[in-house]
Specification:
alpha/beta, Rossmann fold, 2 domains, 6-stranded mixed beta sheet, 5-stranded parallel beta sheet, about 35% helix
């Protein structure tokens, strides 16, 4: 089966290799690219860092105090944090809810936390942490810049009915894919492939259009790729 990989090029190659190992044909069609924002780092001090994506690795390398404790959303993000030189890393279960719970169990609620995040980020885990008494400072250090259009190879495959599945990793990415598909006059083709989504939140825009959807059993790539089986 031909599988469309819509994630940023920085991640798409790794995903494509995993898809090929499962016996499918990956088609890399990035709809975003990861770029630094250039925003200055907020002034410290902080009691701990929150990192919700491996894309933060370059930014956190610039933080001199590598003894700071870091709370990572999942194991892949934790590996990037360790590669950036931090050794005290607590790892959540891959989602904002478990990350917020981990922090609330680990630290007293008067601590200042620096969340190294993307330009377009969700309210969690900051919302629940602030409600619990923490001070969360955001550093929007990188962003997923939107592509202007779908790659021609993806458009051709969709029009010809060759795409069996499309992978979707974020709500913003899902909404962007639908917009780009509409601009490419592909709306009538979107019910042919199954849309494989990392979470119910990611799936919502496709379900609203009554498109075929499968949702990963947990919010990580292993579970997402398991839906291919």
């Amino acid at each position: 089966m031909r599988v469309l990989v819509t994630r940023a090029e920085e991640d798409a190659g790794r995903t494509a290799r995993r898809i090929a190992a499962l016996g499918h044909e990956p088609v890399i069609a990035p709809i975003t690219r990861i770029v630094p924002t250039g925003d200055p780092r907020p002034a410290g001090p902080w009691d701990a860092l929150i990192v919700t994506s491996a894309h933060a690795e370059e930014a956190i390398r610039s933080i001199a105090d590598k003894a700071l404790p870091v709370f990572a959303v999942g194991e892949r993000t934790a590996r990037a944090v360790r590669q950036a030189g931090f050794s005290t890393v607590a790892v959540a279960d891959g989602d904002a809810v478990s990350l917020s719970g981990l922090i609330r169990r680990s630290l007293p609620p008067d601590r200042v936390l620096l969340h190294v995040t993307a330009r377009h980020h969700k309210e969690e885990p900051a919302l629940s942490l602030q409600a619990a008494g923490f001070r969360v400072v955001h550093w929007e250090a990188y962003e997923a810049a939107a592509a202007e259009r779908l790659p021609e190879s993806a458009i051709a495959d969709m029009r010809a009915g060759r795409t069996g599945a499309v992978l979707h990793y974020s709500r913003r990415g899902a909404e962007l894919f639908l917009r780009l598909a509409k601009e490419a006059h592909l709306s009538s083709t979107l019910s042919a492939p199954v849309h494989l989504c990392l979470s119910p939140d990611v799936a919502a825009p496709f379900e609203a259009l009554d498109l075929p959807v499968r949702v990963a059993s947990r919010p990580d790539e292993e579970a997402l790729l398991a839906t291919l089986r």
